[in-house]
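Supplementary material to the annual report.
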Amino acid sequence: MTGLAIAANGLRKSYGDKVVLDGVDLSVPEGTIFSLLGPNGAGKTTVVKILSTLVTADAGDLRVGGHDLATDPQAVRAAIGVTGQFSAVDGLITGEENMLLMADLHHLSRREGRRVAAELLERFDLTEAARKPASTYSGGMKRRLDIAMTLVGSPRIIFLDEPTTGLDPRSRHTMWQIIRELVAGGVTVFLTTQYLEEADELAHRIAVLHDGGIAAEGTADELKRIVPGGHVRLRFTDPAGYRSAADALREAARDDEALALQIPSGGSQRELRSILDWLDSEGVEADELTVHTPDLDDVFFALTGGAAVPHQPTEAAR
Amino acid sequence: MSTLALAVRDSSTMLRRNLLHARRYPSLTLNLLLTPVMLLLLFVYIFGDVMSAGMGGADRSAYIAYLVPGVLMMTIGSTTIGTAVSVSMDMTEGIIARFRTMAIHRGSVLVGHVVGSVLQSVASVVLVGAVGVAIGFRSTDATALEWLAAFGLLVLFALALTWIAVGMGLVSPNAEAASNNAMPLILLPLLSSAFVPVDGMPGWFRPIAEYQPFTPAIETLRGLLLGTEIGHNGWLAVAWCLGLAVLGYFWSAARFGRDPR
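Predicted assembly:
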């Protein structure tokens, strides 16, 4: 084994004239969480569909779990588990029957199947609802059943395509906890998400998919270093106070309309303390002090050309 | 596990899933039984006197004997509409995508549908046949071998129409389209010898009625149960069944093998 759970080189896919993936390279080490980010329609789901053998790539050297996708898809399938964007449960039958169906398809013995099903239903807090048709489940329950079904075969590599989309905050945190537990057990997780916070929270490595290729790849911290923007913002209510502070702190960028000053800073404790000391020595008393660090949102918008998005919190009016 | 053992095991798992669906939601299957049963009762009790008079003055029981084999074949056609609908509905479910990413026998999803549907067809034929017997249908001097052959023919015919229906279900984007696409399966019996002999139809239409799949199958069933002349209809029926089954199989396999959208 190379130590890579997923390796893709030059992955290409078009639908008709529309080129969706134009040479995507990815490598995911075993036992890590890899998150693929990208705007809607960037082709995240297509990547998952291809790597999980659901659709075939037009070109590319693709290996999952050490097996070649083109020549041995069945071996890939034996190594992976997939939870797609739309729940892959059979709504007509009960949660328990869904689990037993998976156990049968993984060729577990009857007894083993019942044991595994009961265990996973318990673990995902579905025991009470096990005898109800899956179509009656709430969104969060369906998603948990979906993941539970994926885990029946103890896959070493799990693809999660937007696993928390549409979930309430509590269910989202439950899902994060589940994902962390999986990785603690040595499983590799390939995650797509539209929540940058989720990638920041979970992923060891993050790649941003844009315009058919990988725009940037690295740890969350590495990505954040790509974009500038860390600063401390001081806001004043009294114009006179603002003016005297602005005179005292010449390095600060001024925002006369908002009566605010911005001092460049990485946001560490040490930097913050030196700023505070400086403010004290200059006798500046701000009414409000906030620390802004570049977050993945900044990275995402910088890389995918969405800089004009209005809610961007760190946008500085100079 | 060998490929064959894998195929059998996964297909029987899929069959259990489909039978579970049918047992949980029997209304689709039962609704499809209404058409053949209603037509049976309509033609016997409302049009019965006219029909038997038109066929040479025989009494009503003779027309019942004539009608029931046709209605049994029609029952199969009607049941397989349900197959097309449930296959197309199933294909829109996320669970099918899950199956495609699992290391299971590729064709088991379809085989499960086909076997389940053939079993439902047989059950439907038994139910409609029971109605036929209740209103006076009796076979005349059919030997055990002929009963067996009749049963074999019904199963083979169900298998053929089911594979075609699976193909129709796979090419249909939704349940409504599947139900429309599968319409010929219930309309064709009306254009066969099910209700009136082909001899009584206009000359230009006779070849169509005579050689479409339903007529040879119905005539063969009549011969087996009632002792009428089978002639070349036996071979025609078997040839149609095998031809349709093979065609439906390859069509379905090719459609299912394509990348989903």
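Residues 216 and 236 of chain B are 6 Å apart (CA to CA).
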